[in-house]
Amino acid sequence: MAFTIYKQSEPMDCGPTCLRMVAKHYGKRYTPKALKELTRLTDYGTSVLHLREAAEKIGFNTLAASVTFEELDNETPLPCIVLWNKNHFVVIPPQDYSPDKPGSKIQIADPERGLMRVDKATFLRSWTEDGEKGVVLMLEPISEE
C-alpha cells in the first residue's frame, strides 16, 4: 500500500499536514481545518507538544523523544513525525532503507516538497541538532478492544 502524501496549503501548516498523513496511513480521515485547530496552529506554526496533544485527541498513543539515528532506524515505529531543520515537520513513512546497503536512501514525506529520498549524511544534517540526536514524535493507534 502506497503512503499518501498531502501537501500543506499554507506556509506554516506542515505539522497538521504531517499528522494528517499519519492518520490516513491508519485509516483515519481528518480535514486540514480540524487538524489545524487541534494542533493550535498559529502564524508561527505549531510545536511538538501541540502535535502530540492533537494526536492523542484523535486516538493515538504518542511518545516524543530525542533519539539517535540507530534508535530511529531500529526501534521507532513508522510512520513517525520528525523535526526537520529546526523549523519544519516531515514524516518518515514505512520504507525499505538499509544502512548496510550502499547507496540506500531514506524516504521523507515532506508536506512542502512531496516525497524525497536523501542519503544518510543529508538526513542527519537536517534532522539532528548536535549531529547525534534528533526529535521524533512516535504515534501508534490506540487499540480498541
TrEMBL record:
<dbReference type="GO" id="GO:0016020">
    <property type="term" value="C:membrane"/>
</dbReference>
<protein>
    <recommendedName>
        <fullName>Peptidase C39 domain-containing protein</fullName>
    </recommendedName>
</protein>
<dbReference type="GO" id="GO:0006508">
    <property type="term" value="P:proteolysis"/>
</dbReference>
<feature type="domain" description="Peptidase C39">
    <location>
        <begin position="8"/>
        <end position="134"/>
    </location>
</feature>
<dbReference type="GO" id="GO:0005524">
    <property type="term" value="F:ATP binding"/>
</dbReference>
<dbReference type="Pfam" id="PF03412">
    <property type="entry name" value="Peptidase_C39"/>
</dbReference>
<dbReference type="InterPro" id="IPR005074">
    <property type="entry name" value="Peptidase_C39"/>
</dbReference>
<dbReference type="GO" id="GO:0008233">
    <property type="term" value="F:peptidase activity"/>
</dbReference>
